[in-house]
Amino acid sequence: MPNEEDGRVDLAPRAQDWDPLEPEAVADPIVILRWLREQRPLAWTERHGGFWSLFRYQDIVEAADDPETFAQGRPQRAPARPPLEVNPPLHTAYRRILNPYFGRTAVAAMEPYTRKVIGALLEPLLDAGGGDLALSFTYPLPTRVLCAFLHLPDEAWTLIDELSNQIYLNEDGRGGNLELVQRAEGELQAFALRLVSERRRSPLDATTDLVSGLIASEIDGSPPTDEQIIQVLRLLFMAGHNSTTSALGICFLHLARSANIQRRLREQPSLIPSAISEFLRYETPVMGMPRTATRDFERYGRRVAKGEQVFLVWAAANRDPQVFSRPDECVIDRRPNRHLVFGRGIHACIGRGLAEMELRAAVEEVLARTRWISLAGPVRRTSWVRFGVRSLPVRFEL
């Protein structure tokens, strides 16, 4: 953490400053995040066993760049899912093995298949003149791409998509079916075990197949166990689905509700990559990530104890007026755009390149295959911690 502030530290029993799942926060999280950034830059909530949150861009950058003080991992989740939920040197070993599979060459090789899947998913929607773009397009697309990325048979995507959707739509804490989430997570873990067992029996090219590559690698001087590889796959299944699904929903919501932006991107498709970055800055799909304090520290007149969780709220940082001019406007040609959508520091999203390719290809293909997109009904959103869409009814003009 940056230099601790002078002044008296309030050691009185902490009071709850906010609840990310209260109706007002769910209805318009940007409003409450703005107030917290301005008035409670280090805030406490009793939710999920209690955790602190940081909201200002500079505080969050400095915390993300200090993994010794702000370690990764969530005590309530066991076992950890590498590399996201482990720390150096274990984190370093996993990233060294995994990084090549997410490099530019690997991502470029996935693009033709991604566009083929986009076309297949769009065809029935285009024939019908529209539909729910969330359930019919933005949910299955990341899963199908991920299955191809992992060299799974195409029919595997339906099971993974069903299980991922059950988790995505029921774990936001608003009365979701947690029993269903646990059952779906167990089935995903069983699928991952079957995949690892199959690759051990019949390995693929370890230079292109991530699971075969993990099996052939060493972690801390020993081959990774089935359990370790399974936890990597659990992370990929969930992050590859939930985060990208949320991001796709945000992008198409912006296109459908803003005629000016849609018209401009149709006229200037070269702006699509910067527009996508701005859509996600404006409404950040993964609103934040947790860290665990490894020592006591004081900030803003408050004391955080060793072992307590500190949430880095990317969504609040991405609207910080100290960093972004006109932060509450969606400026699709914003330059520079120093958003924290994909995190920061050693734990920044390993799949960023793959996700950005999917988003760009999806927006390009939808705009190229239609004359206009408009909303055809009420939009239903997801809430903390992923800010995506549950339902996105649209009308296509061809």
- The unreliable regions are 1-13
Mind telling me the C-alpha Rg? 21 Å
Count the DSSP helices: 15
Per CATH, what is the topology? Cytochrome p450
Taken from the alpha-carbon principal axes, the silhouette is: globular
Q: Helix amount, in percent?
A: 40-55%
Mean pLDDT: 92
Main sheet attributes: strand count, strand direction, barrel closure: 5 strands, mixed
Sheet-strand content, in percent, reads 5-15%
Structural domain count: 1
Structural class, please? Answer: alpha+beta
How many strand segments? 12
| Largest sheet, spatial ordering of strands | 1-2-8-5-3
At the fourth CATH level, what is the homologous superfamily?
Cytochrome P450
How would you briefly describe this protein structure?
The protein has 398 residues and is α+β, with helices and mostly antiparallel strands.
Report on the structure:
It is a single chain. The protein is built from 15 helices and twelve strands. It is an alpha+beta fold. It has a single domain, classed as Cytochrome p450 (Orthogonal Bundle). A hairpin with a 2-residue loop joins strand 6 and strand 7. It is globular. The N and C termini lie far apart (53 Å). The N terminus is likely disordered.
